[in-house]
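Good morning C.,

I know you're traveling, so I'll keep this short. The sequence:
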Amino acid sequence: MSSTEECPVHAVFLLAQELTGAVEDQNWQTVQELQTRLDTELKAIFSDESKVFSDQQSQELLQIYTLTLAAVESVKSQQEKTGQEIRAFRQGKIKTKAYQTK
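The C-alpha cells, ready to paste straight into the viewer:
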C-alpha cells in the first residue's frame, strides 16, 4: 500500500458491522464468509508496517476490534446454547426410549 493510497479502514469497519448483523441474525454461512473477508482485509491493512493511521482510522480500528470481539462472544454464547439444546434433546430421546422399553 503506497503512502498516497487511501487506507480501507472505513470499508473494513463497515464489514465488521455487517459481520455483527449476520451474527445477530444467526446467518452462519454469511458469518463465515464475512470473517474470512475481514481477516484478509485486516492482514492487508497491517501488512505495511510503515503505515501511520489517522485519529479517525485509529478510532475505527478500535471499533472494529470491539465489534469483532462482541461477534465472537455472541457466537460462543450461541454455540453453548445450541450444545445445551442438543444435550437436552439427546437426554429426551434417551428417556423416551427408556419409557418405550418398559
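Safe travels,
E.
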